[in-house]
Design brief:
single chain, alpha+beta, Alpha-Beta Plaits, 5-stranded antiparallel sheet
Length: about 110
């Protein structure tokens, strides 16, 4: 199992819509995540900085392959068309990133 944390900004004018979308995530999209090893997924919002902190655990056996399949899914494409205009990537992201990955520095079970 691999724990993953990531951070992303959200536009102030997009917060209410972002919350609404995530209160009503499509069941098929949730199944796509689960089918490709994503579990224990949470997103937290920090205001007034308007930062999103995402956490998930990957329990699959081929992370790059699973991420590729999910990225190519029409469901992911449709979800991103709704969410990405509401988001604001951090200035420090690297090419190809959207959510900025974070280094795990502590864990307690």
């Amino acid at each position: 199992m691999q724990r993953m944390g990531m951070v992303l900004g959200v536009k102030p004018e997009g917060i209410a819509e972002y919350k609404r979308l995530h209160a009503e995530v499509w069941p098929d999209f949730l199944a796509l995540l689960s089918d490709h090893g994503i579990t224990n997924y949470s997103i937290f919002l920090r205001e007034p900085e308007n930062l999103l902190f995402g956490y998930w655990e990957y329990v699959g056996s081929g992370f790059d392959a699973d991420m590729g399949i999910m990225a190519a899914s029409p469901l992911t494409e449709q979800w991103n068309l709704l969410c990405m205009p509401l988001q604001q990537p951090l200035a420090s992201i690297k090419p190809g990133e959207w959510w900025a990955p974070m280094e795990g520095v502590f864990h307690l079970d």
